[in-house]
Specification:
The protein has 275 residues and is α+β, with helices and mostly antiparallel strands. The chain is built from five helices and 16 strands. The protein has helices at residues 3-12, 18-22, 29-42, 64-70, 74-92; strands spanning 45-48, 51-53, 57-62, 101-106, 115-120, 184-190, 193-196, 201-205, 212-213, 224-227, 232-236, 243-245, 248-250, 252-255, 260-263, 266-274. A hairpin with a 2-residue loop joins strand 1 and strand 2 (51-53).
């Protein structure tokens, strides 16, 4: 069972009477939960080979009407959302620098039904391996100290330059395997956002249950799946519109560094590098 589905079931135990009416507002808790998962994925920072750090302190900005409806229950909702982030991190093998906290704030510039998530890494005083203890790690251009990477963290590896002029996916030879003893890092890039591939399979789709959610009406709920290996491959999951890999319509293809995948109207670039 997916982490979001478990979250919904736990929430049902809290929702009754007037509390249930609160969640008839435009913003639904499951939407916020999905946004927190994406915030973790989008800000995952490789600390070392055994540790990928994600934010642990989140602010969910809501419009004035939504904030008024949800704020009386912010403690219960914050605890449930924190639990969801914890479960998701365990599933993805992410780690934190300190305790997980989710806060609700009012944002006067947001209309009803809109929300915004900010995050930061906030190290606990007992974490000796993290950034400056007890202080948030600010990032340029992000308000209130929310952002990445943590102070002292190694920079994210630069994306290799895209390859050009590759033959069609179904006519290419298999990608060569890594040298013995080397570690292969894999990730995808969607609209400039990097999503680390840290599991044997990565499901892409429009559903909040997908590992990487793509907000595109031409994308099916569970559209396709990337399977890591030597070589890595992509498999269509019975989607409505199919997948295009390096210009070729296909149901399954081998992936190389720089492979371009089109689902709906969204282009995904697959990346991998040794090191």
């Amino acid at each position: 069972m997916g982490v979001l589905k478990k979250f919904e079931q736990r929430l049902e135990g809290l929702v009754n009477g007037t509390f249930a009416k609160v969640f008839k507002s435009e913003v639904q808790p499951v939407e916020i939960a999905g946004a927190l998962q994406r915030e973790c994925d989008n800000n995952a920072t490789i600390w070392n080979r055994e540790r990928t750090v994600v934010p642990n302190d989140f602010v969910v900005e809501l419009s004035a009407p939504d904030f008024e409806r949800l704020s009386p229950y912010s403690g219960q909702l914050g605890d449930e959302l924190s639990g969801l982030v914890r479960d998701y991190a365990k599933q993805q093998r992410y780690t934190f620098m300190g305790p997980i906290k989710v806060h609700l704030e009012k944002a006067d510039d947001l209309d009803t039904g809109l929300y915004r998530v900010r995050s930061r890494t906030l190290a606990s005083s007992t974490d000796q391996q993290g950034p400056e203890r007890g202080a948030a790690a600010p990032a340029a251009g992000r308000p209130g100290g929310y952002g990445y990477p943590p102070v002292g963290a190694p920079p994210m590896p630069a994306a290799p330059p895209p390859g050009g002029g590759r033959p069609a996916a179904d006519r290419r030879p298999a990608a060569p395997g890594p040298m013995p003893g080397t570690q292969v890092r894999r990730w995808i890039e969607i609209n400039g956002t990097r999503h680390q591939i840290s599991r044997p399979t990565l499901v892409l789709g429009r559903s909040t249950e997908a590992d990487v959610r793509i907000d595109d009406p031409g994308v099916s709920r569970r559209h396709c799946e990337i399977r890591t290996g030597t070589p890595s491959t992509i498999q269509d999951l019975g989607s409505t519109n199919g997948i295009v890999v390096d210009g070729q319509h296909t149901t399954r293809a081998t992936l190389r560094d720089g492979s371009r995948i089109v689902v709906g109207s969204t282009t995904i670039v697959y990346r991998q590098a040794e090191g």
